[in-house]
Design a protein that fits this description.
The structure is a homodimer. By secondary structure, chain A is an alpha/beta fold. Chain A is built from twelve helices and twelve strands. Chain A starts with 18 loop residues before the first helix and ends in an 11-residue tail after the last strand. Chains A and B meet through helix 4, helix 5, strand 2, helix 6 and helix 10 of A and helix 4, helix 5, strand 2, helix 6 and helix 10 of B. Chain A binds a DNA duplex through helix 2 and helix 4.
Chain lengths: 344, 344
DNA sequence: TACCCCAATGTGACCGGTCACATATGGTGC
DNA sequence: GCACCATATGTGACCGGTCACATTGGGGTA
């Protein structure tokens, strides 16, 4: 309880200095102090120095709240993230945070866990008066939620999809998936299994598409993909199933973690990777180079993606014409988990 | 450029409704609206409903800025994170974010990359008027920066260290390291190498201490630890060196990623894990169960740690007595990367 | 010298909430 | 019937910046 006893010294929290205090100390008007803060041109150098000295003296810190109130700009960029603990999203997030901060913005993160919380999370971001939004929750549900919300806030989504054309920015997932698939095809594989992420994810769909397109270009038959949930555990489970009734020589996994689980299962089943089965992953997490065997995979530059998100959003906020590239191109990293298929 | 052409329709941004607008619509005073917003008791139910209806009607959203200004409370909790892309920190972060949000706070994250930016990052958090701070950058430099700053803001650090006693919360790193070491000792190993994280990190020191204590309890000699940088790559490099001139039967690695690199190096050198060399990791990242072999490691509950951080900080902010446990206890997870040492 | 203009600075209102305090209303005890 | 009090509501100041506009002084030009 916060009841102050009668007679107790009223420790009047020594109210932090405001611009009028600074003005008084510098012997000029509060408006000129404001001009100094904002780097306005028409302030005499001598005046500026006086003000700066006064600010230092009084330990002046401008109040974000007051500025926000009058300018009705919050200086906040909201970021909607799902699965923030994963390598990819959190890498992008770090880059976003850093770039936004350099531009003077504060990053407000809303983690989406279960599907129902998307609207709630968006609502909170809007409630915090975010000036712009970055949507990094690549499920279709999220996209729908955005469309329904009919926000009038600028936003950027990290997706590749036909919808929301104006706002998107993406790694070209289709191209990445084709790269991985082509690598296996070039090695001589024809019976290739694709292990995907969960149904609702944008990447899942894009990578399936890339896989199918490349397979058909080579005249190979693309079997129905197997659905995982991005975790190594799900890769392991699927690997076990494949051992039981699979007819294939290679697997293209939609991320590196599942690839790890797959390899685990194959080894346990007495099969060698890449001698008996080839595996290609996606993402190139830092650990991938040290899997056994080191994983051939597709690298996505998550940090670059994050930086471009902010660049695009800031351009929008400032009303600048945007000259930014909207596609980050993934790249095949060849290591030792894929080889020519066994004879016969 | 934002020059509006003369004669252009001045699209007077239809200023969002404020409490006075709501008051007018509901036929009462603005103060009563404020009371409704804050759930004040003495508002007649019928009045409350009228106000609620008016708020709905006008799509009223209270202005954070205005409230902040007058209450001089920002509703912001600052989090200082280093290496936010790693599994541990980002897991904690997600938990922190979620818990803080539930309590109505906004989480402001400052990523620390290079060492010099610590003060700058702290400064920015303070500049954003954060009410409380969570320090999740477990290097000694950070601790020093905090001490020097002599902040008057409540804060919690995720460290185990003798300093800053009042503010800390931690996983008991010493206990965890002892668990790992004891496991190897019980299997019969005596020549155990400890691979640590970089020098400046709090965890590094604590785990070295745990390692040494347990070794000495068993009368085994603890060699000088080898220093990595948390990455699988550094583990791999150290593994190569160990192969050249090591005299040991087991390795206790200060995290799972380095353990992965070590195993990679050992395998490449023709040694089997765990037959020839045993390896124990630390953290239990989700992938650890699918390493080859599945990694025996020490689990830290990062999410729990994050939640407790917020609980502790909020208690402090509210001036409540804190009844929270300050230690999260780690746990040994036995898998297949450690076995009895080879004969001889 | 009169005039204008621009650079440099000052004045007061305003943003949208909350706070302290004032006021109206109805119920209770004597 | 009156003092008293709790409940319900209203009034105006205030937080700390920025905005639009007013004011001052000095240099250049006719």
């Amino acid at each position: 309880m916060n009841v102050s006893r009668p007679g107790e010294e009223k420790r009047a929290a020594p109210r932090a200095a405001n611009i009028r205090d600074v003005a008084r100390a510098a012997g000029i008007s509060h408006q000129t102090v404001s001009r100094v803060i904002n780097g306005h041109a028409s302030v005499r150098e001598s005046t500026r120095l006086k003000v700066l000295a006064a600010m230092e003296e009084l330990q002046f810190r401008p109040s974000r709240a007051a500025r926000m109130l009058v300018t009705s700009r919050s200086g906040i960029i909201g970021v909607l993230v799902s699965h923030g603990a994963y390598y990819g999203p959190s890498s992008s997030l770090a880059a976003i945070e850093s770039a936004a901060r350099d531009a003077g913005y504060l990053v407000d993160i809303a983690n989406v866990t279960d599907d129902d919380s998307i609207t709630k999370a968006l609502d909170r971001l809007v409630g915090h008066a975010a000036e712009g939004l970055i949507i990094q929750a690549p499920q279709f549900k999220t996209l729908e939620a955005i469309e329904h919300l009919s926000i009038d806030i600028p936003f950027v989504t990290v997706h590749s999809t036909a919808r929301l054309e104006d706002h998107r920015l993406s790694v070209d997932q289709v191209a990445g998936a084709r790269l991985a698939t082509r690598h296996l095809l070039e090695l001589g594989h024809r019976r290739i299994v694709h292990v995907t992420g969960p149904k609702g994810w944008v990447e899942t769909g894009e990578r399936i598409r890339g896989f199918r397109v490349e397979m058909s270009v080579w005249g190979a038959e693309a079997a129905e993909p197997l659905v995982g949930d991005w975790t190594a555990e799900s890769g392991y489970r699927i690997g076990k199933e494949l051992l039981r009734d699979g007819n294939f020589t290679a697997v293209f996994s939609s991320n590196d973690q599942m690839a790890l689980g797959l390899i685990h299962a194959f080894r346990e089943g007495g099969l060698d990777v890449p001698r008996d089965i080839s595996v290609v992953g996606f993402d190139d997490i830092p650990e991938a180079a040290h899997f056994l065997p080191p994983l051939t995979t597709v690298r996505q530059d998550f940090a670059e993606l994050g930086r471009r998100c902010i660049a695009l959003l800031l351009a929008d906020l400032r009303g600048e014409p945007e000259t930014h590239h909207r596609h980050v191109v993934p790249e095949l990293v060849v290591r030792n988990s894929a080889a020519a298929p066994p004879e016969g």
